[in-house]
Amino acid sequence: MRTIQYVAKVLEELNRTVDFIAGDEADRLVDAILKSKKIFTAGAGRSGLMARAFAMRLMQMGFEAYVVGETVTPNLEKEDLLIIGSGSGETKSLALMAEKAKSLGAAVGVVTINPESTIGRLSDIVVKMPGSPKDKADGDYKTIQPMASLFEQTLLLLYDAVILKLMEKKGLGSGAMFARHANLE
């Protein structure tokens, strides 16, 4: 198969994923973001990269958004929201984070393949996604992609869809967001 044909296959897989996303829960995540004082995003590995991209867009919309683990990240408080992206929902460091956030009275949201996971059970909002956890290549959702690639790609697309819904609700366009784009690059 030619390399470009793999792109077509990946796009087919991504196109199918929309039917497997918990749409009502995604809407609840949007509402929780709108009600929160500060939003914190977290993820490990490639999911963590998607969390960083999501936090950047939230900041560009004017939300007080942070990536957990950065030196400039402030303390989490009761009115805040922690959003975790974790395919397995069992990443130990993220589970501890969710536990700590709950103990501080903050809301926790997770985007995961496994809603019955440790993080899923700790979360107030669980957005179920398709994909195969990286340790189970033959999971419930078949993919040609290695490890958790399909989950990570779909995670970014979901985060971008959440941004679009937030833009709609706040009446924002790209121009308003661009005004908050980094300008020291």
UniProtKB/TrEMBL annotation:
<dbReference type="InterPro" id="IPR001347">
    <property type="entry name" value="SIS_dom"/>
</dbReference>
<comment type="similarity">
    <text>Belongs to the SIS family. PHI subfamily.</text>
</comment>
<dbReference type="InterPro" id="IPR017552">
    <property type="entry name" value="PHI/rmpB"/>
</dbReference>
<protein>
    <submittedName>
        <fullName>6-phospho-3-hexuloisomerase</fullName>
        <ecNumber>5.3.1.27</ecNumber>
    </submittedName>
</protein>
<dbReference type="GO" id="GO:0043800">
    <property type="term" value="F:6-phospho-3-hexuloisomerase activity"/>
</dbReference>
<keyword id="KW-0413">Isomerase</keyword>
<dbReference type="InterPro" id="IPR046348">
    <property type="entry name" value="SIS_dom_sf"/>
</dbReference>
<dbReference type="Pfam" id="PF01380">
    <property type="entry name" value="SIS"/>
</dbReference>
<feature type="domain" description="SIS">
    <location>
        <begin position="29"/>
        <end position="172"/>
    </location>
</feature>
